[in-house]
Structure formats: C-alpha cells, structure tokens
C-alpha cells in the first residue's frame, strides 16, 4: 500500500515506539510508511543522555534525508556536534554515527529506495 493521504495532523496523535534494534532513550514516530517499497517518514527522538554506540557505525541500502528540528547530538565517529537547523542527505552505503545526545534531540527523516533506470530509458 502506498503512503496514506493525511491532512495536517498534530504530532501528538502519533505514538513514539522503540526503534529496532532497541537503544535506551531512542524512539520513533512513524508518520507514513509504504510497505511495498519500505519508504518511511518518521520523527526520531533522542531522550537526554541517549548513546547509540551499541549500534556502532551505521550504513544501509536506502537513501535517507534528515533534518534536526530540536536539540543536538554529537557524532562520536566525527567528533562533531550537529544541532537544530542542520540537515543531511545520505546515499546508500554512507557511514554515519554513532551519536550521543546530552540534552535530547528530535529529527525529521525520510527514507526511500531509488529505482535505478536502465541505460535504455
């Protein structure tokens, strides 16, 4: 099923649940999902003190676009702090994380797979 049609809706109507794999203090609110191609739009929430080190450095097979709209976190691999107003576009295979958020953060994220075109198209 394609992502649902949703008119403006308060974020308070969407439940935050633990992420997989579970990390203490890290949760997600799925705003929309297309189960056919695993496209996801979500809010990722870091509670104060969240440390994603147990997950190590991440890579994945999908595109990911993220925008931090509240708080901050430190990328432990890069030793760099990212804060509200910062954004990233990550192609498949790009290394990122792990992170630590001393005071908490929220991030808007869209994940999608890009269908490659053949050379004949």
From TrEMBL:
Domain ChrR-like cupin: 16-108
Annotated InterPro entries: ChrR-like_cupin_dom, RmlC-like_jellyroll, RmlC_Cupin_sf
Cross-referenced Pfam families: Cupin_7
Name the record gives this protein: Cupin
Organism, scientific name: Chromohalobacter japonicus
The organism's taxonomic lineage, starting at the top: Bacteria, Pseudomonadati, Pseudomonadota, Gammaproteobacteria, Oceanospirillales
């Amino acid at each position: 099923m394609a992502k649902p049609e949703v008119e403006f809706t308060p974020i308070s109507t969407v439940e935050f649940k633990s992420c997989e794999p579970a990390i203490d203090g890290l949760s997600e609110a799925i705003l929309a999902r297309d189960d056919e191609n695993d496209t996801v739009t979500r809010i990722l929430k870091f509670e104060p003190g969240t440390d994603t080190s147990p997950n190590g450095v991440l890579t994945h097979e999908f595109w990911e676009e993220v925008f931090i709209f509240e708080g901050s976190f430190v990328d432990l691999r890069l030793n760099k702090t990212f804060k509200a107003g910062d954004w990233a576009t990550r192609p498949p295979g790009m290394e990122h994380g792990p992170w630590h958020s001393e005071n908490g953060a929220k991030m808007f994220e869209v994940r999608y797979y890009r269908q490659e075109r053949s050379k004949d198209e």
